[in-house]
Each structure stands twice: as structure tokens, then as C-alpha cells.
Design a protein that fits this description.
heterodimer; A: 351 residues; alpha+beta; Cytochrome Bc1 Complex, Chain D, domain 2; 5-stranded mixed β-sheet; 12 strands; 43% helix; 18% strand; B: 632 residues; mainly alpha; 2 strands
């Protein structure tokens, strides 16, 4: 072991770095890589770790070594040497961090340009955030608008999300893609990604948007291109197919109800077989009549449903948190509310 | 005193009478205006509560006696000459009245802020109880959102910012050889606005719809539409902000005009430099958060639409104005801590601060750069994309002056005679955690990485590393360091060390894993989370509970030592700065005669060097040390 304290500290520092750096790099920090940008961002993080760990070790080595080596012996009332500074050392400790952060910033800028690059033939998906769900719309075959509460994406094709908000600020994040942007009322924001991994990935809202914020989670299904095209075609055609099946005075009203149900994003939080939705944030509406019978004894089911729409906290189904459902649905046009009530009270009987 | 006299004299009787009068006045104004306009209903409780939230605290301040002297002077009535009988505290009751003594105000500040620190901490414990497992078991989401919003607001506006003002209030005039602050009555008013602001925030839990639940950031337009509790926040921030601005002005004037003879700027202790620069930040930046909250208040109550996109409101403007204060606020919460750590390390390592002038310059550099980085909080907000890269650069550049400070503390430790007393332990713990917080800060400045982790638990981990591992550890260091000076008694060293190790270990076990869950995909501000994060969250909650309990050791140490601790001498640490050259606690007017400063504040190891001399002392080696203090 060399005598000089500098040489000793360098040896300790190198040993500590040699132990800590592989450990920090081997930790499985990130979720799965689901898009092209993920690999670049994960690599960037590895570089940040490679720079950071030695810096932390440097600070700690000097601090711990000093505390052990220069600790006052019992009864020592002396002072250290009156060293007031060293101009050269101080210049060095300005210049080195300056170069280091400038280099990091340059690398970050290059990566940023890389992940935000435009590509030809982008698929544009409109994303709309609202309390507390996401809705998506695509340009279907023949320019027909296709709406969905489930996000589908084709694999290996660049997507541009055009992000909007209907009420407050949300943030549209797909952790597996490593990308996010706020959904801001009044403006359109966007980000681009090329999904690379088939399967289901999480969609998470990361901007506090009200009592139901924690529950504003969904999924994206990344599917092969043909499957996506087929799905899109089916959705575009499906809108025509689900037109009123003709017959019966009640049918047009449930169609109107379904339309209101889709338009207002009810399916983002509620399951309703009649509307093909599968949300789990709020109570299962396929059971709404049973719930009404159980909890609103003596009250007609229609009144129970109406109250739940316009004044959602008046009664909350046990097991679900109070204050989650937005109160804004009270402001819907009366005919839409009527249609929803009709849909929900009819749905149970038919199915 | 007769009952009538009690209600006339400044104090609690008059204050308790004034509060309902304030409410009545608010109700009368509100009902009167609505009647004049012919609006229905004439009695609108939301409006009455809103106006009385402003009127009642003001009435309280008038009642307790903050304005008596000024009212008399302004109205031409004979002012009561200051006979200084109000100075000093003879019993605990003196801490509960308007007092103009900076040392009494300092203690009032510190005790009040620690009271709110405990409340904020209890809220953190409730949150960790809810987060111990996925799903909602303990509180409903709305209450949870209220808990983290009030927790953050109390910790920032009622603990970290004002507790530094409290410590500086006590120590700073002593350090520069002044008998008091420049404006003692303004100082008292600054203090009394604080508990008012804190109680407003707590009281919001009683509002219909629950406490404000939009986070301490209160982003519009969500905050425009939330229930009444949000108004409590809008108004509370005004009182806390006014208190902050008034204190900062007071510090600036005190430091500029009231230094003892010979105390040039380059002989000021670094704590004084730190509070000088912090006060500059406060005075320039704080009006912006006041503005942002007034915008929201006007949107909510007067039907304006600053943030209503449907009526040409600009939603992003809120964030720009808010962060133009709230990023400098991070330095408002950090620079005084830098000052404390400089004092503690130099004194307990018995060495001059390495590169004293560079330390002062780096504080100034942080002030200037601190105003050029606000939009790094908005990389994913949808603002102009071109603003991102410049803000990344300036943010990373702040690492340079900050790096200088860490380097300088390390170089001060080097070859020192290090006494590992409790304040020194906390200063060393601070260096460790602040370095980690600084590193994660650089990572967050890197835009592509920030896009992924913005608004996740990674950010929660980062801010707790800088604000708890950073600021709060310096606060503990400062409290232990000056405890003998403030109370005249010694704290228990053994308990202090237990407190340090418990909080150091469990702090890291609590907040360290949050980096991982954040990168792995857990958003912040959620009562419920995906089940894949369950294991780590359970671990975090258990550590958090032990971490919370470790505070009880500190509390016991403080209370027991203050009552029964062994008497402290004037200068138990053998420090050179002026506050240690007087008795503990100091005389009512600090110095029996004004000291003359003859050298730098940290001349450890220079034979015979002193910082200041008193008339009855020989100016030892004055000529020799006068220039040594600034040699580099």
C-alpha cells in the first residue's frame, strides 16, 4: 500500500467504482422496451450512471477518508493548518464539471433529435384525455373517423400522437415506449414513436387530474400490421353495422344512448357489454339493475341511474372510492342523459 | 386589568374578539355587494367564506397587536415610546405575544415551523399507510390527494423556508455584530403571518369537498374547478409569501446597513452571505407565486378566465409564472443550508473554509442562474419545444457552482481536526445525500431521460434527496450547532448521534427505492398503483414509519435538554464568529459594547487570530489577520 494519502484514495476510489458501477448497471431499472426510442433512452441512462457513479465515489472517498484519517483524538484541542484556498485547484474544479456537463448536454441534444425525428408515412392517432379516461381516434379506410376507447397500434410503423384534453391537464405516458407528453386543454401536443414489441403495454396518466387520477390507467395493444388494418376496417364498418337494427320504438333510444355513452367516454371507466366497453375504474354497468335493486330499495331503477349520473357521490357502490366520478356529467344535454338512463335500464334486461 | 382593558390592549383577548368581527365584516361586505347588484342568493356562503379567509387573518393580526405602533403613528396619535420592556422573554408566555426581539422571534419561528413539520410528517405517515399495498384501503383518493397537497405545502411554505428565516433571525444579527434586525416591528409582523398561513392550510380539511387536492403546484385549470379548499391554499400562500418577502427585505437592510465596524462584505461569515443571496431570490421571485395564486383566485371567485382555454385563457401561462418563483424557491430552500454547513464544517473541522471568496461567488452565480432554468419543470408540458435545450444547458451549468461548494467543503475537511459531533454528522450526511440529489438532478435535466421519468416516483425521490437529505439535514445541523447558544444548555450528544444514524439509514431506505419504482413506471401522486410495484412500496412504507419515529428521538432530546441539560458556556465549540463571543443565551441587546471586526471569520490555525474584538480586549494581532482572511 503506498504511503501518500492521494495514492491511497485513488486506489480506494477505483476499487469502490469497480464494485458499484457493475452493480448499478446490472439493476433492471426500466420496464420492457416497447418502442424504438426505448433503447436510446436506456443507453443514455447507462451513460449517466457511468459518469455519476465515479463522481459520487470521489466525493465519498474524500469525505470518509478525511473523517477517518483526520478525526480529532480525544483531548486534541488543536486546529488544522490555515489553508485558505488554492487558485489552481479551484480553476480545475470549475473547468472539469463545465466540460463534463457540456458534453452530456450535447449527447442529450443529439438523442433528443433522434427520438423526435419525423418519418414519412406516419400513422396519426388522436388522443383525447378527459377525467378519467383516454379516447383515441384514427383516420379509417376512406377517411372515415374511427373512435375507440382501446388503443391499437401496428408494430414497426411510426406513429404520431396528436394529444388533446377535454377538461384539465393530463399526461399521456406509455412507460414501455419511454415517452410522454401532457394533454393540455386549448392546445395540441404530440410525440412520435415506433412500437417494436407485440403485445399489451400500459398507458398511464402522470399529471394529477383530479380524484380519479390514480385510476386513469389503460393499455395499448401492439399488433401485426394486417391485424391492425383489419381491426381498423372492422371499426369503420362496425359503426355502420351497429346502426339501429330497425324495429321497436325503444331501439333508436338505446342507439342514442350508446352514442352518448361513447362520446362521453363512459366506457373508459365502466364495463357495459352493450357498448363493448370493459373499464374497471367504476362499477360494472351490466349489473346496474341488480345494484339498483340492492341499494336503492323502493326507488325506481331509472331514478337510481339518473342520480348516479348527475350527482355521482349521492350514493357510491361499496368497494369503489367516493369522489372519483366527475360531476360534470350533470351538465350534459337533458336528452343525452335521458338516452343514457334508457340505455342502462334497458341493457340489463336484454343481455 | 379589567376585562374591558384586556380587550383593548394588544394580545390574545383582543385577537379572539377581532376574528369574529373580521368574519362579520366579510359577511357584511359580501351580502351588501350582492344586495346592491341584486344577485341571488344574497347570502352566498362560498363568497362569504372566501372574503373572510382574507379578513379573519388580518383581523387576527390587528387584534394580536402587529399594527398598533403603525396605526398610532399614521393617525397622528402619540406613539408609545419604545422602552424595550418588550425585549427578551422572561417566561414561556412571552413567546405567545408580539415581541420585537429578534432572538425571541427566532425561537418563535423555529418552534412554530417544527410544529408544522410534525403535522406534515404525520400526513406523510398516513400516505405511506395507504401506499403500503396497492388498492385503496385506508383513505379515499380525494383525501389522499388532499394529504399530499397539504403535506408538500406545509413542508415548503411553513417549514423549510421559514425555519431558515428563524435560524437566521436568531443568529444573523449576532454574527454581524448588530443589536437587532433593522425593522423589529416588521420582523414581528412577518412571524405572525406564518401561523395564520399554516392554520388556513390545515383548516382546508374542514372545507366542503375536502382539503385542496391539486398538489402544492396547483396546476390550472384543475385548480380553477376544485372545491372550496383550493381557495384556502390561494389565500394561505399570500400570507406565507408576504411573510417571506418582508423577512427578506429585513435581512437585506440589516446586512447592508447594520454590520459592526470592520465587518466588510469579505469578512462576513458564509451564513450571512447565504442569507443575503437567499433574500435577493425571495424579494425578486416570491411576487410571482403570489401572482399565480391571485390569477387562480380571480378565475375561481370573480369569473375571470386567465386559464380558461374556451375564453382565450392560456393554460401554460400558469406553469411559467408558477415555476418562475418555484424554481428559485428550490434555492431559497437550499442556500441558507449551504451557509449553515459552511459554519458547521469549518468550526468542527477546525480549519478555514477552503476558497472563501469562491464560496460567496458561487452563491451569487446560483442566484443568477437560478432564474434561467424554470422551464426544466415543463419539458413534457407542451410548451415551445425550442425552450427545452437552453433550459437543459442552464440547468446543468448550475452543477458548476454547486460542485465548487461540495469541493470546497471536502477540501475544508482535508487535514482538519475533525470533531464528529452531531452537527458535523448531519453536515456530512448532507454532503452525501445532496450529492446524490444533485446527480439525480443532472439526470432529470437530460431531456430524453426526463421525458420518461417526469411526474414519476423518480422525481419524488429526487426532491426528497435535495429537500430532506439536503435542506432538512442542514436544518438539523444548524439546530444542534446553535442549540447551546439559543437555550444556554447542551443537548445530549448520544441521543443526537442515535437520531442521526436512524434518520440517515431509514431516509435512504425510504427514498432510495423510489428511484427504481419511478423509472420502472410508477407515476407520482397516486393513491393506488399497479400491483407490480407492491413489494418495493411495502418496503418503502416500513422504512418510512421507522424514519418517522426517529424524529421522536430528536424531539425528546430538544425538550429534555432545554429543560434539564447541563449549562452551556459562551463558546462550547471554540468558534471564531461573533455570536459565540457573548454569553449563552446572549444578553438582551446582544452586545454590551459593539465589537470591532479585525479579520476573517474562520481563521482557525492562524496563531492568535481573532474575528472581532470588544473594547475591553486587546486587539490581538489585528494587523496580521486583517488581510489573512481573504488570502487565496
Amino acid at each position: 500500500m503506498p504511503k501518500s494519502p492521494m495514492a491511497r484514495m485513488i486506489i480506494y476510489g477505483v476499487i469502490a467504482t469497480a464494485i458499484l458501477l457493475p452493480i448499478s448497471l446490472s439493476i433492471d431499472w426500466f420496464p420492457h422496451q416497447g418502442a424504438a426510442a426505448a433503447d436510446k433512452i436506456d443507453t443514455l441512462y447507462d451513460v449517466l450512471l457511468i459518469v455519476s457513479v465515479p463522481i459520487f465515489v470521489l466525493v465519498m472517498t474524500v469525505a470518509i477518508y478525511s473523517v477517518i484519517r483526520f478525526r480529532a483524538r480525544p483531548g486534541d484541542s488543536g486546529d488544522g493548518p490555515p489553508i485558505h484556498g488554492d487558485a489552481r485547484l479551484e480553476v480545475v474544479c470549475v473547468v472539469i464539471p463545465f466540460i463534463l456537463v457540456s458534453a452530456l448536454a450535447a449527447y442529450a441534444w443529439i438523442t433528443l433529435n433522434d427520438i423526435e425525428q419525423k418519418k414519412k408515412g406516419e400513422l396519426v392517432v388522436n388522443v383525447t384525455g378527459q377525467q378519467f379516461t383516454w379516447r383515441y381516434s384514427y383516420a379509417g379506410p376512406g377517411g372515415k373517423k374511427v373512435e375507440s376507447t382501446q388503443l391499437y397500434l401496428p408494430v414497426n410503423r411510426q406513429v404520431k400522437f396528436e394529444i388533446h384534453s377535454k377538461d384539465v391537464i393530463h399526461s399521456f405516458w406509455i412507460p414501455d415506449f419511454r415517452l410522454k407528453s401532457d394533454a393540455v386543454p386549448g392546445i395540441t401536443t404530440n410525440w412520435r414513436a415506433r412500437p417494436t414489441k407485440l403485445g399489451v403495454h400500459d398507458v398511464v396518466c402522470t399529471e394529477l387530474c383530479g380524484p380519479g387520477h390514480a385510476l386513469m390507467r389503460g393499455t395499448v395493444r401492439v399488433v401485426p400490421d394486417q391485424q391492425f388494418t383489419a381491426w381498423l376496417g372492422k371499426q369503420a364498418g362496425g359503426a355502420v353495422a351497429t346502426a339501429p337494427p330497425g324495429g321497436g320504438g325503444g331501439a333508436p333510444s338505446t342507439a342514442l344512448g350508446k352514442q352518448a355513452f361513447d362520446q362521453n367516454g363512459c366506457g373508459g371507466c365502466h364495463k357495459l357489454a352493450a357498448a363493448g366497453s370493459s373499464g374497471t375504474v367504476g362499477p360494472d354497468l351490466d349489473n346496474v339493475l341488480q345494484d339498483a335493486a340492492k341499494f336503492a330499495k323502493g326507488k325506481p331503477p331509472a331514478d337510481y341511474v339518473r342520480e348516479s349520473i348527475v350527482n355521482p357521490d349521492a350514493f357510491v357502490v361499496p368497494g369503489f372510492p367516493k369522489g372519483t366520478m366527475p360531476k360534470t356529467f350533470a351538465k350534459l344535454p337533458p336528452d343525452q342523459i335521458d338516452a343514457l338512463v334508457q340505455l342502462l335500464t334497458a341493457g340489463g334486461k336484454k343481455k | 386589568m379589567t376585562m374591558a382593558a384586556r380587550f383593548r390592549a394588544p394580545g390574545w383577548y383582543r385577537a379572539l374578539l377581532a376574528i369574529p368581527l373580521g368574519f362579520a365584516l366579510a359577511a357584511a361586505i359580501d351580502i351588501g355587494v350582492r344586495a346592491l347588484y341584486g344577485w341571488h342568493p344574497i347570502v352566498d356562503w362560498t363568497a362569504i367564506v372566501t372574503v373572510s379567509l382574507i379578513a379573519m387573518p388580518l383581523a387576527f393580526l390587528v387584534g394580536i397587536g402587529c399594527f398598533d405602533y403603525w396605526f398610532r403613528w399614521a393617525s397622528g396619535a402619540p406613539t408609545i415610546p419604545e422602552d424595550h420592556s418588550g425585549h427578551g422573554a422572561r417566561s414561556w408566555r412571552d413567546y405567545f405575544r408580539v415581541n420585537t426581539d429578534h432572538k425571541v422571534i427566532g425561537i418563535q419561528y423555529i418552534v412554530t415551523t417544527f410544529f408544522f413539520f410534525i403535522l406534515g410528517g404525520v400526513m406523510a405517515m398516513l400516505m405511506r399507510a395507504e401506499l403500503a399495498s396497492p388498492g385503496t384501503q385506508f383513505v379515499d383518493p380525494n383525501t389522499f390527494n388532499g394529504l399530499f397537497s397539504v403535506h408538500a405545502s406545509l413542508m415548503i411554505f411553513l417549514f423549510i423556508i421559514p425555519v431558515f428565516a428563524g435560524i437566521a433571525n436568531y443568529v444573523l444579527p449576532l454574527m454581524i455584530g448588530a443589536p437587532d434586525m433593522a425593522f423589529p416591528r416588521l420582523n414581528a409582523l412577518s412571524y405572525w403571518m406564518l401561523p395564520t398561513a399554516g392554520l388556513l392550510m390545515i383548516a382546508s380539511f374542514l372545507a366542503p369537498g375536502g382539503a385542496f387536492s391539486t398538489g402544492w403546484t396547483a396546476y390550472a385549470p384543475l385548480s380553477d374547478h376544485m372545491p372550496l379548499g383550493q381557495t384556502f391554499f390561494n389565500v394561505a400562500v399570500q400570507f406565507a409569501g408576504a411573510s417571506s418577502i418582508a423577512t427578506a427585505l429585513n435581512f437585506l437592510v440589516t446586512i447592508i446597513t447594520m454590520r459592526a465596524p470592520g465587518m466588510t462584505f469579505w469578512r462576513m461569515p458564509l451564513l450571512v452571505w447565504a442569507n443575503f443571496t437567499t433574500s435577493l431570490l425571495v424579494v425578486i421571485a416570491t411576487p410571482f407565486i403570489a401572482g399565480s395564486q391571485f390569477f387562480v383566485l380571480f378565475d375561481r371567485t370573480l369569473g375571470m378566465h386567465f386559464f380558461d382555454p374556451g375564453r382565450s385563457g392560456d393554460v401554460l401561462m400558469y406553469q411559467h409564472v408558477f415555476w418562475f418563483y418555484s424554481h428559485p424557491a428550490v434555492y431559497i430552500m437550499m442556500l441558507p443550508g449551504f451557509g449553515i454547513v459552511s459554519e458547521v464544517i469549518s468550526t468542527h473541522a477546525r480549519k478555514p473554509i477552503f476558497g472563501y471568496r469562491m464560496m460567496a461567488f458561487s452563491l451569487m452565480a446560483i442566484v443568477v442562474l437560478g432564474f434561467t432554468v424554470w422551464a426544466h419543470h415543463m419539458f413534457v408540458s407542451g410548451m415551445f419545444p425550442w425552450l427545452r435545450v437552453p433550459m437543459m444547458l442552464t440547468t446543468m451549468l448550475i452543477a458548476v457552482p454547486t460542485g465548487i461548494k461540495i469541493f470546497s467543503w471536502l477540501a475544508t475537511l482535508w487535514r482538519g481536526v475533525i470533531h464528529l459531533r452531531t452537527p458535523m454528522l448531519f453536515a456530512l450526511g448532507f454532503i452525501t445525500m445532496f450529492t446524490l440529489g444533485g446527480i439525480s438532478g443532472i439526470m432529470l435535466a437530460v431531456i430524453p431521460f426526463d421525458i420518461h421519468v417526469s411526474d414519476t416516483y423518480f422525481v419524488v425521490a429526487h426532491i426528497h434527496y435535495v429537500l430532506f437529505g439536503g435542506s432538512v439535514f442542514t436544518i438539523f445541523a444548524g439546530i444542534y450547532h446553535w442549540f447551546p447558544k439559543m437555550t444556554g444548555r447542551m443537548y445530549d450528544e448520544g441521543l443526537g448521534k442515535i437520531h442521526f444514524w436512524l434518520s440517515f439509514v431509514f431516509f435512504n431506505l425510504t427514498f432510495g427505492p423510489m428511484h427504481l419504482v419511478g423509472i420502472d413506471g410508477m407515476p407520482r401522486r397516486v393513491a393506488d398503483y399497479a400491483s407490480e410495484f407492491a413489494t418495493l412500496n411495502a418496503l418503502i412504507s416500513i422504512s418510512a414509519f421507522i424514519f418517522g419515529l426517529s424524529f421522536l428521538v430528536f424531539l425528546y432530546n430538544m425538550v429534555a435538554s432545554w429543560r434539564h441539560g447541563p449549562a452551556a458556556e459562551g463558546n462550547p465549540w471554540r468558534a471564531h464568529t461573533l455570536e459565540w463571543q457573548v454569553s449563552s443565551p446572549p444578553p438582551i441587546f446582544n452586545f454590551d459594547d459593539v465589537p470591532t471586526v479585525v479579520g476573517g471569520p474562520y481563521e482557525y490555525g492562524v496563531p492568535g487570530a481573532v474575528h472581532g474584538v470588544f473594547k475591553d480586549q486587546e486587539p490581538v494581532a489585528a494587523g496580521k489577520t486583517a488581510t489573512a482572511g481573504v488570502a487565496e
